[in-house]
Structure formats: C-alpha cells, structure tokens
Amino acid sequence: MFRSTSIILCGLVLSPLTSAQELPPAKATAAASVDAHAAALIDASTRIWEWAELALTEHRSSALLADMLAADGFTMQRGVSEMETAWVASFGSGEPVVAFLAEFDALPGLSQKAQVSQEARVPGECGHGCGHNLFGAGSVGAGIALKQAMLEHDLPGTVRVYGTPAEEHGIGKVWMVRDGMFDDVDVCLSWHPGDENEVDVLPSKALRSFEVTFSGRSAHAAGAPWKGVSALDAVEAFETGVNLLREHMPESARIHYVVTAGGDAPNVIPSTASIWLFTRGKDWPEQEQVFQHVMKIVEGADLMAWGEEHGDLAAGFKPAQVQMFTGLYHYNPNHTVARLMHRNLELIGPPDFSEEHHAFARGLQENFGLEPLGMHAEVRPFDPDPEPESGGSTDVANISWVCPTIDLSVANWPLEIPAHSWASTAASGSDGGKLAMLTAAKVLAASGIDVLTHPEEVSEARAEFERASAGFPYVSPVGPEDAPSLPSHLRAN
Ligand SMILES: [Zn+2]
Questions:
Q1: Least buried of 83, 205, 259, 487, by fewest C-beta within 10 Å?
Q2: CB count, 10 Å around CB of 322?
Q3: Going by DSSP bridges, is the β-strand pair 272-281/254-261 parallel, antiparallel, or unpaired?
C-alpha cells in the first residue's frame, strides 16, 4: 500500500499519509496537495462542525468553503438557483467536465461533543450527525487537488465543485438540476461519510416531501363545540387514512410524518393544523402512486372534519393546502464510474487509523450499545450486484438522471454507528473522522484525474447512462415558479 511516515498537524497525528512517490505522477501531485492542505481542510471541517448551521441558513459554512476555492483561483458563482448558500466553483475549460459536490448543512437537536459519551455541546442545538462538515471540506480538498494536478501535468478539461445546501431537506441539488447546472457535466463524483470504505451501487428511494395544512373554525371547546370545526380532527382522520393505506402499499414504499401544528390550547378548537410527510417508493413512479393515493386521503379527511358543512358555502371553509417542498428521484448508479472510483479507492487505500482512533471508536460503539469493533480499516470489495436494502433518499439521485454519477463512502464513523445520531455527530468531529476525510479527498481527486485522462471510460459511462435512462427522461419535480422552502415550524426558527 501507499504509506509514508507520520506528520503532526494542528495537534493531530495524521499517521501515515499517502506516499506521493508511489502513485502515478498526476495522482501523486493530487495526494500531495491534499496533504499540503490538510491543516486548512481539518480546520474548515472543525469550524463547520461547531457552527452546525441548518438547511438554507448555512451562511458561514457555505462562505468558508467558497472562500477557500476562490482563494485558490477558482471562478465563483455564488447565490445560484435562488439559494444564498449555493455556489459553483470552476477551474479549467472545455471537456471533460468533472463535478464534485460539497454539502454543509446540519441536523436539529443533535448537538454533541467530540467524545465517546453522550453530552451536548449546547443542549437543544444542532449537530453534524450526517458528517456534512467533512463532506464539504473533503470535496473542497478534492477540487483544489485536482486543479493542482491539472496545472502541473497539463490535463485537459474543467473541474467544478458545487456547494449544495439543504441536503437534509433534499433541496439544494434539486433546484440546481432544475436550472440545468449539471447539463454539461461528464461525470459527477460524490462521496458521503459512512462507517465503511466502499463504492457501492445500491439504489436509493424516491421521495416527496410535503406539508398538508387543514383549516377549521375556532370555538369554545366546552361552551359551543358544535359551532367549531377542528383542524386537528382533520389531521387525525388523515393519519388514520394514511395508516390504513400502509397495509396495501408495495413492500418497498414508505410513508412517515410529524405533526407540525396541532392547535394551541385544549379549550380552543384548532382552526389550523399541519402535518409534514414523506412518501417514498423504490422508484419515482412507485412513489407517485403512493403520493396520489395520499392526496385522495387529504380530501377525505377534510370531508370528515367538516361534515355537511364541507364545501364552498360553509362559513370559514377552506380546503386543505398542500405545500410541496421537494421531490427526489431514485438513484441511478453508474457502474462504469463506480469501477473507476473503486480502482482509485484501492490505489489510495483505506484511512490508516491509529490505535487511538480505534479506541475512540470502540468507546463510542460501547456507549451506543454496539459491539466494540473499531473503525473499518479495509476496502470493501466492489459488488456490482448488491442485495437491495431498505434505505433512505438523497438529492444526489436527481443528478444521477442528468449525468453519470457515483458515490464513495469513507469510514469517518465507527462500524455500525448510524447516521443522524449523537454518536455520528461525535465521530464527525473526531480526529479519526477528519483523517478519513483526507482519504476521501484523495480518492475523489485521483478519480477525477482518470475522468480527465481516460476518454474511453467517459464514453463508456455516457453509453451506460443513455441505456439506463432510455425511456425515463428526467422531469424536474420542482417547477420554475417553485422557490426552495422549509416546513412552517422550521421557517419560524
Ligand atoms: Zn448526509
């Protein structure tokens, strides 16, 4: 493997780093660039982890990463696609075009110190339980490294880093795809923090996120309940209908919800109540089938709450309002790019975790009720035909229907630690998590070099993409009039 001696940065022992001498020349340059920028990348990931900014309000995190790329000579487009925190950084010109993605939003309620036991940094505040602090900084490192290799080795093409906000709400990339920002991309190389080192071709589920707001009519809940209409009743009737639907859905479909407004006091019949839902399916058509059924349940719930007063003539009647937040397609993994990326993951090798990193991981695992297995210190063999498993959704999937796309996972978290937990927040701020981020940056940059220098593989990836998307053209789930937005209770904060 490609190892060298330890160096110390920012008080962290980064041991050992990839040896530039043992890689092909352009990849050695890229790896050396990541090592040279390691302190700045680690510092950026730490600051973003501490700031822990929520979707569409990631102002400091977004600016920090954009400023790093601007300072390195990238051309910046800031505030794109109606989002102040979205940007595109570009270097080079012409084909091929390689895209890296940088996420940076945090999750509510997951504040946590970078330690093995559960303790909030600031109780009730946000935390980086999905590791987007590492995701963003690692991708910036990859962009800078690829640019350096292009300069030193006279490589053709363009490298772009996309600052994609609000991933936790599946928003940023959906609007950027709507606006055609990926239309000329040859290959999109993404990554995400995980608990294993692997390139996988597992699909993700399609999803719609929407909020239904029912209207009623307030009255004294004891004195004159017959004069009121409860919007909360409509929500409850709606939930019942949705839960009855579950028995008859395809196995791979999902519905989940939270009540976002249910009235203010028991003695006032609620005149408004809201529920926020996700409908999911194994693919977009299956999800749409479930979604359309749920829309019928909305009408039924309105009718149940209003009874004979249902209709335009009743005093105060207002039909339920449905606000769409986003639509995510199922993922279309490109196997040609997956093999290219896997080759580079093996070339760079897994993060070389120290005994302290493993000990920290074991502590976290024990405190989370898991086997103390430590960190994943190998590369999982590429599996071209994995067993589909129950999984989530991602807005990277929308990109995968407009250009060949693949996702790398690197072990920033201890084995089996789930995303969106206090433990993944702790791991995303840990030394081991940051070391693995540098591995991700090197693998992405090395893969980008292959995209720029292997036109035959780019053609093969494009041909595979055309086959996979034949008869399934991408239709944006959001229209030109739709603006990125969040559910009402999050907007209020
Ligand atoms: Zn994530």
A1: 259
A2: 13
A3: antiparallel
Q: What is the whole-number distance in angstroms between the Cα of residue 192 and the centre of ligand 1?
A: 7
What is the distance in A from the centroid of ligand 1 to the CA of 52? 13
Residue ranges of the chain that CATH labels 3.30.70.360: 206-327
SS3 state of residue 202: coil
* Angle, in degrees to the nearest 10, between helices 335-348 and 431-453: 120
pLDDT in tens, 42-62: 999 999 999 999 999 999 999
Is residue 16 reached through a cis peptide bond, with omega within 30 degrees of 0 on the bond before it? yes
Q: How far away, in angstroms, is 167 Cα from ligand 1 center?
A: 7
Q: Say how many Å lie between the CA of residue 169 and the centre of ligand 1.
A: 10
Q: How far apart are CA 317 and CA 311, in angstroms?
A: 7
Fold topology of 7-204+331-469: Aminopeptidase (3.40.630)
How far, in Å, is the centroid of ligand 1 from the Cα of 57? 16
- pLDDT tens digits, residue range 367-407? 999 999 999 999 999 999 998 776 789 999 999 999 999 99
Model pLDDT, residue 156: 96
CATH 3.40.630.10 residue ranges of the chain are 7-204+331-469
SS3 assignment, position 78: strand
Alpha carbon of 351 to ligand 1 centroid (Å):
20
The whole model's pTM is what?
Answer: 0.92
- Residue 259 Cα to ligand 1 midpoint, Å, equals 23
Over residues 169-182, the mean pLDDT reads 97
CA of 420 to the centre of ligand 1 (A): 8
Backbone torsion region of residue 469, taken as left when φ is above 0, otherwise alpha when ψ lies between -120 and 50, otherwise beta = alpha
What is the CA(454)–ligand 1 centre distance, in A?
A: 30
362 C-alpha to ligand 1 centroid (Å):
23
Compute the distance from residue 107 Cα to the ligand 1 centre, in Å.
9
CA of residue 105 to ligand 1 center, whole Å:
8
Q: Tell me how far the alpha carbon of residue 170 lies from the centroid of ligand 1, in angstroms.
A: 10
Give 131 Cα–ligand 1 centroid separation in angstroms: 7
Considering the segment(s) 206-327 as one domain, its CATH architecture is 2-Layer Sandwich (3.30)
pLDDT digits (tens, 9 = 90+) for 93-152: 999 999 999 999 999 999 999 999 999 999 999 999 999 999 999 999 999 999 999 999
Rounded Cα distance, 129 and 216, in Å: 38
φ, ψ at 146 (rounded to 5°): -65, -40
331 Cα distance to chain centroid: 12
Centroid of ligand 1 to alpha carbon of 406 (angstroms): 15
- Residue 434: name the closest of 79, 11, 56 by CA: 11
